[in-house]
Amino acid sequence: MTRENVKIGLFGYGCVGQGLHDVLNSSKGFKADIVRICVKDRTKKRRISMDHFTFDKDEILNDPSINLVVELIDDADEAFNIVTAAMKNGKNVVSANKMMIAKHFKELVDMQAKYKVSMLYEASAGASIPIIRNLEEYYDNELLYSLRGILNGTTNYILTKMHNEGLPYDEALREAQHKGFAESDPTLDVEGWDAKYKLCIITGHAYGLFLNPDEVFHFGINKISKFDIQYAKEKGFKIKLVPYVGKTSEKTITNFVLPRFISSDKYLYNVDNEYNGIITEAAFADKQFFSGKGAGGHATGSAVLSDISANSYGYRYEYKKFQQGTISNYTRDHKLEVYLRYNDEKDRELFGFEEVSEYFSGRFNKYVIGVVNLKNLYAIREQLRDMDVFIVNTGRKV
User: Fold this and answer.
1) What is the pTM of this model?
2) Which three-class secondary structure string do you get for 212-261?
3) Which domain, by its residues, includes 47?
4) Which residue among the candidates 198, 240, 266, 366 is catalytic per the annotation?
Protein backbone atom coordinates (compact mmCIF):
# COMPACT_ATOMS: atom_id res chain seq x y z
CA MET A 1 0.00 0.00 0.00
CA THR A 2 1.35 3.42 -0.96
CA ARG A 3 2.16 5.69 1.92
CA GLU A 4 1.16 9.33 1.59
CA ASN A 5 3.63 12.07 2.48
CA VAL A 6 2.08 13.59 5.61
CA LYS A 7 2.08 17.37 6.05
CA ILE A 8 0.63 18.24 9.45
CA GLY A 9 -1.11 21.34 10.69
CA LEU A 10 -1.06 21.04 14.49
CA PHE A 11 -3.51 22.79 16.79
CA GLY A 12 -2.29 23.03 20.38
CA TYR A 13 1.17 22.73 21.87
CA GLY A 14 0.46 21.80 25.47
CA CYS A 15 1.29 18.54 27.23
CA VAL A 16 0.01 16.25 24.45
CA GLY A 17 1.19 18.46 21.59
CA GLN A 18 4.71 18.52 22.96
CA GLY A 19 4.51 14.79 23.70
CA LEU A 20 3.56 14.15 20.08
CA HIS A 21 6.45 16.33 18.90
CA ASP A 22 8.86 14.26 21.02
CA VAL A 23 7.63 10.83 19.87
CA LEU A 24 7.47 11.99 16.25
CA ASN A 25 11.08 13.22 16.38
CA SER A 26 12.15 9.96 18.05
CA SER A 27 10.40 7.71 15.55
CA LYS A 28 12.82 5.74 13.35
CA GLY A 29 10.31 4.09 11.05
CA PHE A 30 7.95 6.94 10.24
CA LYS A 31 8.45 10.58 9.36
CA ALA A 32 5.95 13.40 9.00
CA ASP A 33 6.40 17.13 8.71
CA ILE A 34 4.71 19.53 11.11
CA VAL A 35 4.25 22.46 8.75
CA ARG A 36 2.58 24.83 11.20
CA ILE A 37 1.43 24.91 14.86
CA CYS A 38 -1.55 27.06 15.81
CA VAL A 39 -1.74 28.26 19.43
CA LYS A 40 -3.87 30.80 21.29
CA ASP A 41 -1.54 32.37 23.87
CA ARG A 42 0.75 34.94 22.26
CA THR A 43 2.70 35.59 25.48
CA LYS A 44 3.59 32.03 26.48
CA LYS A 45 7.21 31.04 26.03
CA ARG A 46 7.69 28.04 23.76
CA ARG A 47 10.50 25.52 23.75
CA ILE A 48 10.99 25.80 19.99
CA SER A 49 11.35 28.78 17.66
CA MET A 50 8.25 30.96 17.23
CA ASP A 51 8.82 30.67 13.46
CA HIS A 52 6.87 27.39 13.66
CA PHE A 53 3.77 29.00 15.19
CA THR A 54 0.74 30.90 14.02
CA PHE A 55 -2.19 32.46 15.87
CA ASP A 56 -4.50 32.31 12.85
CA LYS A 57 -6.27 28.97 12.39
CA ASP A 58 -7.07 29.75 8.74
CA GLU A 59 -3.36 29.73 7.99
CA ILE A 60 -3.55 25.98 8.51
CA LEU A 61 -7.11 25.27 7.39
CA ASN A 62 -6.66 27.05 4.05
CA ASP A 63 -3.14 25.82 3.31
CA PRO A 64 -3.41 23.34 0.39
CA SER A 65 -0.03 21.79 1.25
CA ILE A 66 -1.36 20.55 4.62
CA ASN A 67 -3.21 17.25 4.23
CA LEU A 68 -3.67 16.32 7.89
CA VAL A 69 -5.00 18.43 10.74
CA VAL A 70 -4.04 17.21 14.23
CA GLU A 71 -6.27 18.79 16.88
CA LEU A 72 -4.95 18.71 20.47
CA ILE A 73 -6.61 21.66 22.23
CA ASP A 74 -8.70 21.75 25.41
CA ASP A 75 -11.63 23.85 24.15
CA ALA A 76 -14.23 21.34 22.87
CA ASP A 77 -16.34 23.95 21.05
CA GLU A 78 -13.39 25.47 19.22
CA ALA A 79 -12.06 21.97 18.50
CA PHE A 80 -15.37 21.13 16.79
CA ASN A 81 -15.12 24.29 14.68
CA ILE A 82 -11.56 23.40 13.65
CA VAL A 83 -12.31 19.75 12.89
CA THR A 84 -15.45 20.43 10.85
CA ALA A 85 -13.76 23.22 8.87
CA ALA A 86 -10.84 20.90 8.12
CA MET A 87 -13.11 18.11 6.86
CA LYS A 88 -15.10 20.52 4.70
CA ASN A 89 -11.78 21.56 3.17
CA GLY A 90 -11.01 17.93 2.33
CA LYS A 91 -8.39 17.43 5.04
CA ASN A 92 -8.12 14.29 7.16
CA VAL A 93 -8.16 14.79 10.92
CA VAL A 94 -6.59 13.23 14.01
CA SER A 95 -7.98 14.31 17.39
CA ALA A 96 -7.67 13.45 21.08
CA ASN A 97 -10.65 15.56 22.22
CA LYS A 98 -13.01 13.12 23.90
CA MET A 99 -15.59 15.74 24.95
CA MET A 100 -15.89 17.14 21.44
CA ILE A 101 -16.16 13.71 19.82
CA ALA A 102 -18.68 12.33 22.34
CA LYS A 103 -20.95 15.38 22.09
CA HIS A 104 -20.95 15.42 18.27
CA PHE A 105 -20.30 11.75 17.55
CA LYS A 106 -22.94 10.94 14.90
CA GLU A 107 -22.48 14.30 13.17
CA LEU A 108 -18.73 13.68 12.87
CA VAL A 109 -19.33 10.17 11.52
CA ASP A 110 -21.73 11.53 8.90
CA MET A 111 -19.31 14.30 7.89
CA GLN A 112 -16.53 11.78 7.22
CA ALA A 113 -18.80 10.02 4.73
CA LYS A 114 -20.09 13.25 3.17
CA TYR A 115 -16.68 14.82 2.57
CA LYS A 116 -14.85 11.53 1.95
CA VAL A 117 -12.25 12.17 4.63
CA SER A 118 -10.98 10.23 7.63
CA MET A 119 -11.08 11.22 11.29
CA LEU A 120 -9.07 9.10 13.71
CA TYR A 121 -9.10 9.53 17.50
CA GLU A 122 -7.54 6.54 19.25
CA ALA A 123 -6.02 8.78 21.95
CA SER A 124 -9.47 10.05 22.96
CA ALA A 125 -10.63 6.84 24.63
CA GLY A 126 -7.75 5.00 26.29
CA ALA A 127 -4.61 7.12 25.93
CA SER A 128 -1.90 4.55 25.10
CA ILE A 129 -4.32 1.56 24.90
CA PRO A 130 -5.42 0.90 21.28
CA ILE A 131 -8.98 -0.05 22.20
CA ILE A 132 -10.82 1.65 19.33
CA ARG A 133 -8.71 -0.02 16.65
CA ASN A 134 -9.21 -3.38 18.36
CA LEU A 135 -12.98 -2.89 18.52
CA GLU A 136 -13.02 -1.90 14.84
CA GLU A 137 -10.80 -4.71 13.57
CA TYR A 138 -10.50 -7.57 16.06
CA TYR A 139 -14.05 -7.48 17.42
CA ASP A 140 -15.78 -6.43 14.19
CA ASN A 141 -17.70 -9.72 13.90
CA GLU A 142 -17.41 -10.84 17.54
CA LEU A 143 -20.40 -11.21 19.86
CA LEU A 144 -19.25 -8.74 22.48
CA TYR A 145 -21.01 -9.22 25.83
CA SER A 146 -19.47 -6.33 27.76
CA LEU A 147 -16.59 -3.92 28.20
CA ARG A 148 -15.48 -2.28 31.43
CA GLY A 149 -12.35 -0.72 32.78
CA ILE A 150 -10.38 2.16 34.18
CA LEU A 151 -10.36 4.95 31.61
CA ASN A 152 -9.18 7.93 33.65
CA GLY A 153 -5.61 8.16 34.89
CA THR A 154 -6.29 11.13 37.20
CA THR A 155 -8.92 9.40 39.34
CA ASN A 156 -6.96 6.16 39.38
CA TYR A 157 -3.88 7.99 40.67
CA ILE A 158 -5.92 9.64 43.45
CA LEU A 159 -7.62 6.38 44.47
CA THR A 160 -4.26 4.56 44.48
CA LYS A 161 -2.73 7.14 46.81
CA MET A 162 -5.74 7.01 49.12
CA HIS A 163 -5.69 3.21 49.31
CA ASN A 164 -1.94 2.55 49.42
CA GLU A 165 -0.72 5.52 51.46
CA GLY A 166 -3.81 6.55 53.41
CA LEU A 167 -3.82 10.05 51.93
CA PRO A 168 -7.04 12.06 52.28
CA TYR A 169 -8.77 12.92 49.01
CA ASP A 170 -7.70 16.59 48.91
CA GLU A 171 -4.04 15.72 49.48
CA ALA A 172 -4.07 12.97 46.85
CA LEU A 173 -5.65 15.38 44.38
CA ARG A 174 -2.99 18.03 45.04
CA GLU A 175 -0.26 15.45 44.43
CA ALA A 176 -1.91 14.43 41.15
CA GLN A 177 -1.99 18.09 40.11
CA HIS A 178 1.63 18.60 41.09
CA LYS A 179 2.70 15.63 38.94
CA GLY A 180 0.68 16.85 35.97
CA PHE A 181 -1.91 14.05 36.09
CA ALA A 182 -4.74 16.41 37.11
CA GLU A 183 -5.78 19.81 35.79
CA SER A 184 -5.93 22.90 38.02
CA ASP A 185 -9.72 22.50 37.68
CA PRO A 186 -10.12 18.72 38.03
CA THR A 187 -13.93 18.69 37.72
CA LEU A 188 -14.17 16.78 34.44
CA ASP A 189 -11.97 13.99 35.79
CA VAL A 190 -13.06 13.59 39.41
CA GLU A 191 -16.80 13.95 38.75
CA GLY A 192 -16.66 11.24 36.07
CA TRP A 193 -17.38 13.36 32.99
CA ASP A 194 -14.13 12.44 31.25
CA ALA A 195 -14.71 8.72 31.78
CA LYS A 196 -18.27 9.09 30.46
CA TYR A 197 -17.15 10.81 27.26
CA LYS A 198 -14.66 8.01 26.66
CA LEU A 199 -17.34 5.40 27.38
CA CYS A 200 -19.67 6.98 24.81
CA ILE A 201 -16.95 6.81 22.16
CA ILE A 202 -16.19 3.18 23.00
CA THR A 203 -19.91 2.34 22.96
CA GLY A 204 -20.16 3.65 19.39
CA HIS A 205 -17.42 1.33 18.20
CA ALA A 206 -18.34 -1.65 20.38
CA TYR A 207 -22.08 -1.69 19.67
CA GLY A 208 -22.83 0.87 16.96
CA LEU A 209 -24.96 3.21 19.10
CA PHE A 210 -24.00 6.90 19.14
CA LEU A 211 -25.38 8.06 22.48
CA ASN A 212 -25.73 11.62 23.66
CA PRO A 213 -23.58 11.79 26.82
CA ASP A 214 -26.54 13.39 28.62
CA GLU A 215 -28.34 10.05 28.33
CA VAL A 216 -25.64 8.23 30.30
CA PHE A 217 -25.47 8.14 34.11
CA HIS A 218 -22.16 8.98 35.75
CA PHE A 219 -20.95 9.39 39.33
CA GLY A 220 -17.34 10.23 40.17
CA ILE A 221 -14.99 10.06 43.14
CA ASN A 222 -15.02 13.64 44.44
CA LYS A 223 -17.20 12.71 47.44
CA ILE A 224 -15.14 9.73 48.56
CA SER A 225 -14.06 9.63 52.22
CA LYS A 226 -11.51 7.77 54.31
CA PHE A 227 -14.44 5.76 55.67
CA ASP A 228 -15.19 4.40 52.18
CA ILE A 229 -11.54 3.48 51.61
CA GLN A 230 -11.34 1.81 55.01
CA TYR A 231 -14.51 -0.20 54.40
CA ALA A 232 -13.12 -1.41 51.06
CA LYS A 233 -9.77 -2.38 52.60
CA GLU A 234 -11.43 -4.33 55.41
CA LYS A 235 -13.38 -6.31 52.82
CA GLY A 236 -10.30 -6.93 50.65
CA PHE A 237 -11.31 -4.48 47.91
CA LYS A 238 -9.86 -1.49 46.12
CA ILE A 239 -12.17 1.22 44.79
CA LYS A 240 -11.72 2.10 41.12
CA LEU A 241 -13.77 4.34 38.83
CA VAL A 242 -15.12 1.88 36.27
CA PRO A 243 -17.19 2.76 33.19
CA TYR A 244 -19.26 -0.19 31.93
CA VAL A 245 -21.15 -1.03 28.74
CA GLY A 246 -22.84 -4.35 28.08
CA LYS A 247 -25.74 -6.20 26.57
CA THR A 248 -28.94 -6.66 28.57
CA SER A 249 -30.64 -8.62 25.77
CA GLU A 250 -29.98 -9.59 22.16
CA LYS A 251 -30.55 -6.09 20.76
CA THR A 252 -30.23 -3.88 23.87
CA ILE A 253 -27.33 -2.44 25.84
CA THR A 254 -26.85 -0.30 28.93
CA ASN A 255 -23.90 1.75 30.12
CA PHE A 256 -22.87 3.87 33.11
CA VAL A 257 -19.91 5.21 35.08
CA LEU A 258 -19.61 4.34 38.78
CA PRO A 259 -16.89 3.63 41.33
CA ARG A 260 -16.60 -0.14 41.77
CA PHE A 261 -15.25 -2.56 44.37
CA ILE A 262 -12.42 -4.63 42.87
CA SER A 263 -11.20 -7.78 44.65
CA SER A 264 -7.58 -8.95 44.57
CA ASP A 265 -8.31 -11.76 42.10
CA LYS A 266 -9.51 -9.34 39.40
CA TYR A 267 -7.44 -7.87 36.57
CA LEU A 268 -8.14 -4.26 37.52
CA TYR A 269 -6.94 -4.68 41.12
CA ASN A 270 -3.30 -4.09 40.23
CA VAL A 271 -3.93 -1.32 37.69
CA ASP A 272 -2.65 1.55 39.81
CA ASN A 273 -1.49 5.16 39.65
CA GLU A 274 -1.96 6.78 36.22
CA TYR A 275 -2.45 3.48 34.39
CA ASN A 276 -5.65 2.41 32.63
CA GLY A 277 -7.04 -1.08 32.12
CA ILE A 278 -9.85 -2.42 29.94
CA ILE A 279 -11.59 -5.82 30.06
CA THR A 280 -13.64 -7.19 27.18
CA GLU A 281 -15.87 -10.25 27.43
CA ALA A 282 -17.05 -11.92 24.25
CA ALA A 283 -18.57 -15.16 22.98
CA PHE A 284 -15.54 -16.49 21.12
CA ALA A 285 -12.53 -14.53 22.36
CA ASP A 286 -13.79 -14.94 25.95
CA LYS A 287 -12.18 -12.45 28.36
CA GLN A 288 -9.28 -10.18 27.34
CA PHE A 289 -7.40 -7.54 29.27
CA PHE A 290 -5.61 -4.43 27.98
CA SER A 291 -3.45 -2.17 30.14
CA GLY A 292 -1.33 0.90 29.55
CA LYS A 293 -0.62 4.46 30.64
CA GLY A 294 -3.75 6.57 30.83
CA ALA A 295 -2.20 9.99 31.37
CA GLY A 296 0.85 11.94 30.29
CA GLY A 297 1.98 13.65 27.12
CA HIS A 298 4.17 10.88 25.74
CA ALA A 299 1.62 8.09 26.34
CA THR A 300 -1.14 10.05 24.62
CA GLY A 301 1.26 11.36 21.99
CA SER A 302 2.16 7.80 21.03
CA ALA A 303 -1.51 7.03 20.30
CA VAL A 304 -1.78 10.22 18.24
CA LEU A 305 1.33 9.20 16.28
CA SER A 306 -0.22 5.79 15.61
CA ASP A 307 -3.25 7.53 14.08
CA ILE A 308 -1.02 9.79 11.99
CA SER A 309 0.81 6.72 10.68
CA ALA A 310 -2.45 4.88 9.96
CA ASN A 311 -3.77 7.95 8.15
CA SER A 312 -0.74 7.91 5.86
CA TYR A 313 -1.87 4.47 4.64
CA GLY A 314 -5.42 5.68 4.02
CA TYR A 315 -6.91 3.98 7.07
CA ARG A 316 -10.35 5.05 8.25
CA TYR A 317 -12.90 3.72 10.71
CA GLU A 318 -15.67 1.73 9.05
CA TYR A 319 -18.02 1.81 12.08
CA LYS A 320 -18.76 -1.84 11.42
CA LYS A 321 -21.12 -2.46 14.34
CA PHE A 322 -23.17 0.58 13.29
CA GLN A 323 -23.34 -0.75 9.73
CA GLN A 324 -24.38 -4.20 10.98
CA GLY A 325 -27.17 -2.70 13.11
CA THR A 326 -27.39 -5.68 15.47
CA ILE A 327 -27.86 -3.45 18.55
CA SER A 328 -30.83 -1.11 18.24
CA ASN A 329 -31.89 -0.23 21.80
CA TYR A 330 -30.47 1.48 24.87
CA THR A 331 -31.93 1.07 28.35
CA ARG A 332 -31.40 2.38 31.87
CA ASP A 333 -33.85 -0.19 33.25
CA HIS A 334 -31.04 -2.23 34.76
CA LYS A 335 -30.56 -3.47 38.33
CA LEU A 336 -27.31 -2.96 40.23
CA GLU A 337 -26.11 -3.83 43.71
CA VAL A 338 -24.50 -0.76 45.27
CA TYR A 339 -22.87 0.39 48.47
CA LEU A 340 -24.31 3.74 49.56
CA ARG A 341 -22.60 5.76 52.28
CA TYR A 342 -24.86 8.55 53.51
CA ASN A 343 -25.93 10.66 56.50
CA ASP A 344 -29.53 11.68 55.89
CA GLU A 345 -32.26 9.01 55.78
CA LYS A 346 -34.21 11.19 53.34
CA ASP A 347 -31.33 10.88 50.87
CA ARG A 348 -31.34 7.10 51.17
CA GLU A 349 -35.08 6.96 50.43
CA LEU A 350 -34.53 8.64 47.06
CA PHE A 351 -32.53 5.64 45.82
CA GLY A 352 -35.51 3.28 46.02
CA PHE A 353 -33.67 0.20 47.27
CA GLU A 354 -35.51 -2.92 46.12
CA GLU A 355 -33.69 -5.14 48.61
CA VAL A 356 -31.04 -4.66 51.28
CA SER A 357 -28.34 -7.16 52.22
CA GLU A 358 -26.23 -5.09 54.64
CA TYR A 359 -26.85 -2.02 56.80
CA PHE A 360 -24.74 -0.01 59.24
CA SER A 361 -25.50 3.09 61.29
CA GLY A 362 -22.73 4.71 63.30
CA ARG A 363 -22.15 8.02 64.99
CA PHE A 364 -20.57 9.66 61.94
CA ASN A 365 -21.43 7.41 58.99
CA LYS A 366 -24.17 5.16 57.70
CA TYR A 367 -24.10 2.78 54.81
CA VAL A 368 -26.40 0.33 53.10
CA ILE A 369 -25.75 -2.33 50.49
CA GLY A 370 -28.63 -3.33 48.28
CA VAL A 371 -30.20 -3.41 44.83
CA VAL A 372 -31.22 -0.25 42.99
CA ASN A 373 -32.33 0.43 39.44
CA LEU A 374 -30.06 2.45 37.18
CA LYS A 375 -33.05 4.46 35.99
CA ASN A 376 -33.60 5.64 39.60
CA LEU A 377 -29.98 6.80 39.83
CA TYR A 378 -30.40 8.66 36.56
CA ALA A 379 -33.62 10.30 37.78
CA ILE A 380 -31.86 11.80 40.83
CA ARG A 381 -28.59 12.65 39.04
CA GLU A 382 -28.98 16.42 39.58
CA GLN A 383 -29.80 16.01 43.29
CA LEU A 384 -26.77 13.78 43.81
CA ARG A 385 -24.48 16.77 43.26
CA ASP A 386 -25.69 18.35 46.50
CA MET A 387 -25.97 15.18 48.59
CA ASP A 388 -23.35 14.03 51.09
CA VAL A 389 -23.26 10.49 49.67
CA PHE A 390 -20.86 8.11 47.99
CA ILE A 391 -21.96 5.28 45.70
CA VAL A 392 -19.99 2.18 44.73
CA ASN A 393 -21.06 -0.61 42.37
CA THR A 394 -20.33 -3.84 44.28
CA GLY A 395 -19.87 -5.71 40.99
CA ARG A 396 -22.19 -8.52 42.07
CA LYS A 397 -24.53 -9.64 39.30
CA VAL A 398 -28.18 -9.15 40.17
Assistant:
1) 0.95
2) CHHHCEECCCCCCCHHHHHHHHHCCEEEEEEEEEEEEECCEEEEEEEEEE
3) 7-134+297-318
4) 198
